[in-house]
Amino acid sequence: RKEYSVQPQIKSQRAEPELSLSQVPSPIENVSGLLSLVRSIHRKSEMNLLSFRMSKAARELLTPQQLTEKVSFCMIGMNRGRFLKTSISFVWLVVLFGCLFVVLISVLRLPEVSNSRKAIGLYHNTKTRESSESSSIGKFGEKMIEMLPEDLAFTVFVPSERAFERDLRLRKNESLVEKMNDDTYAVISRVLGFSAVPRTIITDDVSSGEEILYDSISGFVLYISKDVDGMLVVNRVRSEKVDIKRNKIVVHVMDGVIMDAEFEESVQPDDDDDEEK
């Protein structure tokens, strides 16, 4: 018989070392550990974000064909924007030039209208003045002026219609029925010889209180002076209208007939004729 020696198995228990006060972690060490933990977590999150962005960029990588299509699409969009801007600018330019054209036409046409109105008014005033001057000169005075050349300077002291009738016994209704007869023509031409001067004489050429002398085309001396009211007095015959111009001819309508004594006697009516009348 074998004898087994039984030895009691005793569990080895390690005695835990006792902690001393020097081995207890301080609060500062706990904070530093916490900070290091936070830093490590932050580094991991940054790495995860970087990897995510890289994976996203990798997913968005385009092939050359896709890149060309995308660039073409962008160029088309840019061209469309430029075309739209160009079209709007062109429309604005057309509108601007149209407005400027309308303004220029309006400005250029306004003076023409005013000038035409002025011309019409001037023409109307000229015609009115000519008609009034013709009526003041009379038919016999017009006949006297027609005997003179229009391209030469003359001054004619024309008798008025009343002076022709009063001093020369000439009435336009009797003497100018169809045309002047020989006697009427002779009388008018003789009066023209006495009252026409071969030069221009207007009222401004004669000073007040001064008397000037001129020879008529027949050699008859004319004594010309100016009255206080500006009217001319020729051989004691006073004027009614002065400074009427017909081309180069100046006409003064007189309240009487300028003639010499011999012609005045020849045109005076006989006493026998007056008694018979």
TrEMBL record:
UniProt keywords (A-Z) are:
Membrane, Transmembrane, Transmembrane helix
Segments spanning the bilayer are 88-108
Q: What's the domain of life for this entry?
A: Eukaryota
Residue ranges constituting the FAS1 domain according to the UniProt record: 124-258
**InterPro entries per record:** FAS1_dom_sf, FAS1_domain
| Keyword hit for Membrane | yes
Q: Name one Pfam family in it.
A: Fasciclin
Q: Which family does it belong to?
A: Belongs to the fasciclin-like AGP family.
Q: What is this protein called?
A: FAS1 domain-containing protein
